[in-house]
Every structure is written in structure tokens, then in C-alpha cells.
């Protein structure tokens, strides 16, 4: 399972705008490169990323082969209630990677 | 050839005992960081977004993972890396009594694995070795590089220095032709740095992954159309040591971002 890093503030005040960050370790092979022997390296990418906040999807991206390795996303969320902020990645083979962090809203 | 007078032989032995490499450094060391665009500098400074930290985190996991017939992890002997490994990377490569030669950090990790843990050596440039090296080097972040220069290390430094100034490859260029004579000039759009190694292993944008000092040496050698040496070869360890000597005083930046 690929290595991931996520950052969600531990606590926030209701109504606060908080920054969410997520990164996944992945080569994002674009399919245009060859090995030193000239053999093409097939496409190998993460195709979907989504984030949900307390069960409701708040962010979704479809990724394409043009992206750099180790895709990194940063976005903002309005803190309304305590709950898990969950992250979900899926690669082209359907393999799913998940990570989650609790956010406490005071 | 007439035998040398005993006094001269004695002098020679004494000199060998105290041999020290201490030439003047060619220039004030300047980290590759200062040649980066502000965007890449920000990326390196951001401990979360810096992709090199992904490898450091792999190293964190490996540090606590038992390996080999001993069933021991790095942490079982060395404990908390934040204390035991602080400053270690700043003094490598260095002479190893066990190996009988100068070895670098990667080789020290592998020596621990084979001799103490009873595990197989990790392949050079493998994700695991890069992760562990990055993690150990990261513990010295911010500390000034300071390698030893006496005894057998001086011999290694001399060989490294010779390598640095020797022209090689079809383009017939030495390391110094770019990284000393043309620092700050451009190769196409790329500014030429001093070739300092204080941030290794680095996350290199061109590779889209982590790479060791030796991968960079091999890349540079290929760029001047020379046959590169193998990663972990004594030639590259000597060069690595000499490069570290040139970096004396620069802070360890591992994991650094480079282009």
C-alpha cells in the first residue's frame, strides 16, 4: 500500500476555514517513458482522489497521466462539526488507499 | 636504486602517521539550495509538502522493524534516532575499522545489517536503503558538515580530489570545469551549482524520486559521456568524501529538493 501523508488540524472553532493537505507516494508513470533498453514503461497512475468530511464528500479530483509523481493536494474546508476527515485514493488497477483523521470542532 | 637512509625512512613513517588533508577550500561553500527557484525553496522548507519526507517516513518505519536472524531492529541497539543519530550524517563518509576503508552512510547501514542484524544488505538505490539513509541523515538536519581529515581518510580525500579535477568522458570535462570554474553560469536554463552534497539523499525533480549521492555522480558522469562507476564503488565513496570536505560548514539539508 502506498505511503500517504495527511494533515488535518486537531481542533478548530466552528466556522473556521481550515487547510487540509494530502500527499500520496506514487510514481505517476505517464506511459511515454522507456527503460534504458528501450522498452516502453506502461502507464501507472492514481486516477481518483476524494475527501469526505463527516461522511459527506467535500472534494474530488480525477487525475491524468500529465501529473508529477507523488501528487499533493491542498484545499480549504469550513469546520462545522466534529467528525472524521477521510481521504481516499484509487489507482488505475482499482487498488484503494485510505487515510483518516479526526477533527474536533469546539 | 639505493636503499633510503634509515633517517629518511623514519621521517616517511612519521609523516604517514600524521598525514592530514588540509588544503585550502577552493571557494566559500554555497548550498545548492541557493541556486533553486523560490518555489522549490519553499517546497524544501515545507516539511509536509516536501516529497522527500515520504522517504524519511519509510525510514521511520524501517528503523523500528526487526530484520535478519538476530530479530533486532535498528532501534533495539540505537534507541531513539533523534538522539543517537543526531550529527552522524554530518561526519560521514568516514573510516571504518571493520571495513578497513572509508565508507559512506549507506554502507554503514548495510554493515550494521549484515554484521549485527544478520540481514541481507539492502541494494544501493533501493527504496528501503534510500528511506533509511534519508531518515538517518534527516536527524542531522541543520548541523554543519564536518568530516575527519587524518590518517587513511586523507588518502581517500586525495583520491577524491584527483577524481574531481580529472577530465573524463567524450566531452572531456572534469567536475571542476563546471562546479568550480562556471558556478553561477548557466547550462541552458539551469544555473550551475557548486555541486555540494549537503542535502543528499535528495528528491530530484528530474527523477521524480529520491536519489543518492552516487546516483547523482553517475548522472553527472553520463552527462559528460563518461562511463559511470557503480554505486557504492570506492571511487565514488572517495569523491563523496571529498565533496563533503568541500561542503565543510554547510548545514545538512536532507531531504533536499534539487532540480
Question: Mind sketching the topology for me?
Answer:
The complex is a heterodimer of chains A (106) and B (259).
Chain A lengths: L3 E4 L3 E2 L4 E8 L21 E8 L2 E7 L9 E7 L4 E9 L4 E10 L1
Parallel strand pairs in A: 2-8
Antiparallel strand pairs in A: 1-3, 3-6, 4-5, 4-7, 7-8
Chain B lengths: L5 H12 L20 H8 L6 H12 L10 H5 L2 H4 L9 E3 L4 E3 L1 H13 L9 H12 L13 H14 L9 H5 L6 E2 L2 E2 L10 E3 L4 E3 L1 H11 L10 H13 L9 E3 L1
Parallel strand pairs in B: 5-7
Antiparallel strand pairs in B: 1-2, 3-4, 5-6
Helix pairs in contact in B: 3-7, 6-7, 8-11
- Assembly type of the chains comes to heterodimer
What is the count of DSSP helices of chain A, taking H or I runs of 4+ residues?
0
Query: Which stretches of chain B are low in confidence, meaning pLDDT under 50 for 5 or more residues running?
Result: 8-17
Strand order of the largest sheet of chain B: 6-5-7
Q: Describe the sheet with the most strands of chain B.
A: 3 strands, mixed
In round numbers, the mean pLDDT of chain B is: 91
How does the overall form of chain A come out from the CA principal axes?
Answer: elongated
CA-CA gap between termini of chain B: 55 Å
Overall outline of chain B: globular
Show unreliable segments of chain A. none
Specify the structural class of chain B.
mainly alpha
What's the Cα radius of gyration of chain A?
16 Å
- Largest protein interface, residues of each chain: A-B, 13 and 10 residues
Cα(first) to Cα(last) distance of chain A is: 34 Å
Order of helices and strands of chain B: HHHHHEEHHHHEEEEHHE
- The helix/strand order of chain A is EEEEEEEE
Number of alpha- plus pi-helical segments of chain B: 11
Would you report the number of β strands of chain A? 8
Number of strands of chain B: 7
Amino acid at each position: 500500500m502506498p505511503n500517504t501523508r495527511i494533515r488535518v488540524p486537531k481542533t478548530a472553532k466552528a466556522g473556521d476555514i481550515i487547510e487540509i493537505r494530502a500527499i500520496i507516494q506514487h510514481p505517476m508513470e505517464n506511459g511515454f517513458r522507456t527503460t534504458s533498453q528501450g522498452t516502453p514503461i506502461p502507464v501507472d497512475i492514481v486516477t481518483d482522489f476524494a475527501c469526505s468530511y463527516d461522511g459527506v464528500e467535500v472534494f474530488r479530483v480525477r487525475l491524468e497521466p500529465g501529473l508529477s509523481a507523488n501528487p499533493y493536494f491542498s484545499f480549504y474546508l469550513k469546520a462545522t462539526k466534529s467528525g472524521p476527515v477521510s481521504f481516499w485514493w484509487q489507482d488505475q488497477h482499482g487498488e484503494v488507499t485510505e487515510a483518516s483523521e479526526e477533527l474536533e470542532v469546539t | 636504486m639505493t636503499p633510503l637512509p634509515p633517517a629518511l625512512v623514519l621521517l616517511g613513517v612519521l609523516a604517514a602517521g600524521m598525514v592530514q588533508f588540509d588544503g585550502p577550500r577552493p571557494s566559500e561553500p554555497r548550498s545548492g539550495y541557493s541556486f533553486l527557484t523560490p518555489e522549490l525553496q519553499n517546497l524544501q522548507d515545507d516539511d509536509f509538502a516536501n516529497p522527500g519526507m515520504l522517504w524519511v517516513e519509510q525510514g521511520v518505519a524501517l528503523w523500528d522493524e526487526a530484520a535478519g536472524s538476530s530479530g533486532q531492529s535498528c532501534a533495539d541497539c540505537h534507541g531513539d534516532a533523534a538522539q543517537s543519530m543526531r550529527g552522524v550524517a554530518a561526519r560521514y563518509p568516514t573510516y571504518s575499522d571493520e571495513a578497513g576503508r572509508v565508507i559512506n552512510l549507506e554502507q554503514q547501514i548495510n554493515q550494521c545489517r549484515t554484521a549485527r542484524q544478520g540481514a541481507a544488505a539492502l541494494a544501493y538505490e533501493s527504496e528501503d536503503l534510500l528511506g533509511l539513509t534519508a531518515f538517518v541523515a534527516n536527524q542531522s538536519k541543520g548541523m554543519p558538515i564536518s568530516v575527519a581529515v587524518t590518517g587513511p581518510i586523507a588518502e581517500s580525500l586525495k583520491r577524491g580530489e584527483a577524481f574531481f579535477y580529472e577530465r573524463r568522458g567524450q566531452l572531456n570535462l572534469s567536475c571542476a570545469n563546471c562546479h568550480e570554474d562556471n558556478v553561477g553560469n548557466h547550462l541552458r536554463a539551469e544555473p550551475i551549482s557548486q555541486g555540494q552534497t549537503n542535502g543528499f539523499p535528495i528528491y530530484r525533480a528530474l527523477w521524480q524520486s529520491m536519489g543518492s549521492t552516487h546516483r547523482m555522480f553517475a548522472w553527472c558522469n553520463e552527462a559528460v559521456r563518461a562511463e559511470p562507476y557503480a554505486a557504492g564503488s570506492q571511487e565514488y565513496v572517495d569523491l563523496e568524501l571529498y565533496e563533503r570536505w568541500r561542503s565543510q560548514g554547510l548545514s545538512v539539508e536532507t531531504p533536499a529538493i534539487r532540480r
